[in-house]
Amino acid sequence: MYVGIDVGTSTVKAAAFDAAGGELAVAARPVGLALRGGSVEQDMEEVYGAVVAVLGEVTARAPGPVELAGLTGQGDGVWLVDAQGRPVRPAASWMDGRAHALVDRWLADGTVETVFRRTGGAMFPGSPGPLLAWLDAHEPASLNAAAAALYCKDMVFHRLTGAGPVTDVSDASMPFLDPRTRTYDNRVVELLGLAHRRRLLAPVGDPVATAPALGEGLPAGTRVTNGPYDLPACALGAGVTAPGDGLLIVGTCLASLVATTALGLGGEPAGLYISTDRPGHWLRAMPAMVGTAALDWVLSTTGVRHEEVDALLAETPPGAHGVRVLPYFAPSGERAPFVEPRLRAELTGVSLESTKADLVRATCEGIGFAARHCLEAAGLTGTLAVCGGGTRSPAWMRLLADVLGRPLRVVEGEVGARGAVLAAAGRHGVALDTEAWTRPTAVVEPDAGRAAFYAPAYADHLARLAAARDRARA
């Protein structure tokens, strides 16, 4: 039995798999987000407690001893811990917007572009560089008390195994890692004014770190592997490794990933290059802030339940009777395929005749246009897999195929946890049938007529977005 742990932003999951990749058991537990005045924080003890709970549940329900356990989880943010791995303060989430003024300044003075040219990562308010600089200015005592500034899964690995603080090349990719040498770029640390905090950056395990479990949640001695984080883990779990192939994760974050062997640090600074377990292979990532959180806000505001979405999408035609949504609802703006900390959502074309169905369809279409923008910027040329919570809506998957104008290889289940196990197996030389583990559950073909309708609608989306960006910078 193989166990994957996926420490998500709002839900912590564990999944047990057999040797052929079949899911034996899945356990999940929600975790909270504290939003206040632009800050978005998480209680590390709550998160770790949820990890232990779901591991205990899944190992009790699934038969057999645990051969391997692989960890993955949300990226970015800052998880400050002491020498024992205990929290120094609440974790600052990747959704946190407090450092937006810093990012504005670094955008204006060229720091964001300089960092991107060196590391392939375009900073945004919730990435570790800006957050650490903000904490250094406003909460220096927290940094003084910390032994390490970790990423989410690193904190969990530290606690589960008692191993010292460590991260992996995928998490370290934003914003301090040189993607060519796979080591920290100290010049970037200096540019962000953090040279005196350099000690907080955890060592990079390359290949990913592994250590035996202490006995909380997993049987003592179980081999636990730390990494990669959720985006590259999902790419592994969906079988996206060939250059040109892509993955769209329809989750809280709308993440577009394209596998590549070409490191291109030109163009508009946006997204990042994620280093993988194979030197010379990267994922060109456009992890947009827009995602299912945008749809969740519209549903809660209109009083619509998630199970009603498919029926509502059938009630109104493509174009949603003229209602348009720019779905940039995150308090920290947008980070891919451009960085615009002050960008906000816009609803247009709404009248007294507009229905809830129009608002829901327009939001789903807006998210689809954002995905198309990201995938084009990331250089998609091959097949496209899709995973995440959004795949539970067949109607939305059909809409996405139409908006994107290409077939979707739908990969359901716990794709991130699956990828974490595959990474662990690779680390320990355990041979698994990756084709069987990553086989799609369905292929959704676009409708030619609807795809033709959405082509000019996408061009209109880009025009409205350009105008909104101008207003955000005014």
Automatic annotation (TrEMBL):
<dbReference type="GO" id="GO:0005975">
    <property type="term" value="P:carbohydrate metabolic process"/>
</dbReference>
<comment type="similarity">
    <text>Belongs to the FGGY kinase family.</text>
</comment>
<dbReference type="Pfam" id="PF00370">
    <property type="entry name" value="FGGY_N"/>
</dbReference>
<dbReference type="InterPro" id="IPR043129">
    <property type="entry name" value="ATPase_NBD"/>
</dbReference>
<feature type="domain" description="Carbohydrate kinase FGGY C-terminal">
    <location>
        <begin position="273"/>
        <end position="425"/>
    </location>
</feature>
<dbReference type="GO" id="GO:0016301">
    <property type="term" value="F:kinase activity"/>
</dbReference>
<protein>
    <submittedName>
        <fullName>Carbohydrate kinase</fullName>
    </submittedName>
</protein>
<dbReference type="InterPro" id="IPR000577">
    <property type="entry name" value="Carb_kinase_FGGY"/>
</dbReference>
<dbReference type="InterPro" id="IPR050406">
    <property type="entry name" value="FGGY_Carb_Kinase"/>
</dbReference>
<dbReference type="InterPro" id="IPR018485">
    <property type="entry name" value="FGGY_C"/>
</dbReference>
<keyword id="KW-0418">Kinase</keyword>
<dbReference type="Pfam" id="PF02782">
    <property type="entry name" value="FGGY_C"/>
</dbReference>
<dbReference type="InterPro" id="IPR018484">
    <property type="entry name" value="FGGY_N"/>
</dbReference>
<keyword id="KW-0808">Transferase</keyword>
<feature type="domain" description="Carbohydrate kinase FGGY N-terminal">
    <location>
        <begin position="1"/>
        <end position="202"/>
    </location>
</feature>
